[in-house]
Design brief:
This protein has 174 residues and is mainly alpha-helical. Helix content is 49%, strand content 2%. The protein has a two-stranded antiparallel sheet with strand order 1-2. Helix 2 crosses helix 4 and helix 4 runs antiparallel to helix 5. The protein is globular, with a radius of gyration of 24 Å.
Amino acid sequence: MSNEKGKETGEGSSRSTDQPAQLSRYESQKRRDWNTFGQYLKNHRPPVPMSQCNYNHVIEFLRYLDQFGKTKVHSQGCVFFGHPEPPGPCNCPLRQAWGSLDALIGRLRAAYEESGGLPENNPFANGAIRLYLREVRDSQAKARGIPYKKKPKKKRSQVKTNEVEASTIHMQPS
């Protein structure tokens, strides 16, 4: 009995308390993103405590991240505006892709609440953030000439029918 208790608390094991368990890729990204955002607020002039952070700071952070983007977004004056596969190079800026920003906001939204923030005060869940992301998505789709189409949700009955069909074994006559 005492052996089992020692194993549960980590006594006698090679793992020490200063080595945290291996985090999932999502958890690692979420922690990195949270730390990056916190550093951004500390470097802000004047510095902004997390308790006073609002959606404006979040949108400002997303715009700041654009300088590190890798997605070419053609401006309206560019000859390649609206072309999904432009034939040559241009001087249009590189930006963060909409999907990357959307995923980032999802991770920061979760990290905020895990760090003790109240859901009703979560600046990452503010409607202005959703509106900003929608504008980014639409402008990037327009610049590439590919309209964004939301994937239609399957109806519940259709999903169940597909699951039943997939689980049914069809026997071939011998």
